[in-house]
């Protein structure tokens, strides 16, 4: 991988982050697993979730390290998903953002930017809580309200990982996306401010 530059970062959550994976394995297989990048990824996520993690069908949880038995984590392509979301929004700031200069940004992120390792542990003190909130939807029968529930890790949690990028010119745009995390973050219910974070670049002395 000598052709790639590497930066190492630490994200610190300034708001709680919510889990995104359905706790019920059948729901996950039918509706989420089919959207995974490939079959190997789908099987890996299901295995990490753990068959007996939770009984609630409507609840979203964090994937676990060590075959579903360890601590909570994100997978590398969830960071890529955040990059795409950030770039899509910042791309609207024509002439006022680095992202607006990036052509075919989805292909660039898929082919030239690689967060690592595959499993990124979420480090925190305390316990995983549960967050309940109402979901409103307009239907043919009128407005309907349901209750959604997610695992929640408190503010102060950290994630440390590396980012390989194939062109030094991509570094300013990657930093811009990470800066955007202070406004719109990771995980479920981002529009409410959940999952927001600040970041720092790790030096060789700080890097794991």
Describe this structure in words.
The chain is an alpha+beta fold and 208 residues long. It has one domain. Helix content is 27%, strand content 31%. The protein contains six helices and twelve strands. The strands form three sheets. Strands 2, 3, 4, 9 and 10 form a five-stranded mixed β-sheet that branches. A hairpin with a 2-residue loop joins strand 9 and strand 10. About 4% of the residues have low confidence.
Q: What is the H/E order?
A: EEEHHEEHEHHEEEEEHE
Beta strand count: 12
Overall 3D form: globular
Number of helices, where a helix is a run of at least 4 consecutive DSSP H or I residues? 6
The radius of gyration computed from the alpha-carbon positions, rounded to a whole number of angstroms, is 18 Å
| Range of strand content | 25-35%
* Stretches with pLDDT under 50, minimum 5 residues: 49-57
Biggest sheet, open or closed, and with what strands and sense? 5 strands, mixed
Q: How many domain units?
A: 1
How far apart are the termini?
Answer: 19 Å
Average pLDDT for all residues: 83
Structural class: alpha+beta
């Amino acid at each position: 991988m000598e052709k790639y530059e590497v930066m190492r970062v630490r994200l610190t959550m300034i708001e709680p982050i919510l889990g995104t994976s359905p706790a019920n394995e059948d729901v996950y297989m039918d509706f989420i697993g089919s959207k995974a990048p490939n079959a190997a990824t789908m099987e890996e996520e299901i295995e990490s979730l753990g068959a007996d993690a939770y009984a609630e069908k409507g609840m979203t949880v964090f994937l676990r390290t060590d075959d579903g038995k360890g601590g909570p984590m994100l997978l590398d392509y969830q960071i890529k998903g955040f990059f795409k979301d950030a770039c899509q929004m910042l791309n609207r700031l024509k002439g006022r953002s680095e992202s607006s200069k990036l052509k075919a940004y989805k292909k660039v992120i898929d082919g030239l930017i690689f967060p690592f390792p595959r499993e990124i542990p979420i480090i925190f003190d305390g316990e995983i809580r549960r967050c309940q909130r109402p979901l409103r939807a307009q239907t043919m029968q009128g407005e309907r309200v349901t209750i959604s529930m997610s695992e929640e890790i408190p503010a102060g949690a950290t994630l440390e990982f590396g980012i390989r990028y194939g062109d030094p010119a991509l570094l300013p745009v990657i930093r811009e996306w990470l800066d955007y995390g202070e406004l719109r973050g990771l995980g479920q219910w981002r529009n409410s401010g959940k999952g927001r974070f600040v970041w720092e670049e790790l030096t060789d002395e700080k890097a794991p």
